[in-house]
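Sequence design from tokenized structure. All designs in this work follow the same two-part layout: the structure record, then the generated sequence. An example of the structure record is given first.
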């Protein structure tokens, strides 16, 4: 039996589902090979609950400033990841008013 497309799996999985399952979101820029890990609960504080295949288009690489090479992988951490995996955490959300 053929393997299912990974992006089809992500289209049915939402941020709230990943947060409830205790998973991490690993977002990789395939252009400059920069990988960052996020907790889904942190992203839910400033984004609506959306499917993960649509979420990857909202990120931009900090190193090369590109948006079209981003790839999302859902990772369930295990004991070997303890102390080695760097997870970015949300400290606070600031609202800035700019006159137009």
């Amino acid at each position: 039996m053929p393997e299912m497309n990974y992006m089809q799996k992500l289209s049915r999985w939402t941020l709230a589902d990943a947060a409830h399952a205790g998973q991490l979101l690993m977002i990789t820029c395939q252009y400059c090979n920069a990988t960052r890990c996020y907790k889904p609960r942190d992203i839910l504080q400033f984004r609506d609950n959306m499917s993960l295949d649509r979420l990857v288009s909202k990120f931009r690489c900090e190193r090369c400033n590109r948006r079209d090479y981003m790839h999302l992988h859902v990772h369930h951490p295990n004991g070997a990841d303890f102390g080695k995996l760097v997870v970015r955490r949300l400290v606070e959300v600031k609202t800035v008013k700019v006159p137009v």
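Strands lie at 24-29, 34-38, 70-75, 87-88. We note this feature because it recurs in several other targets discussed in the main text.
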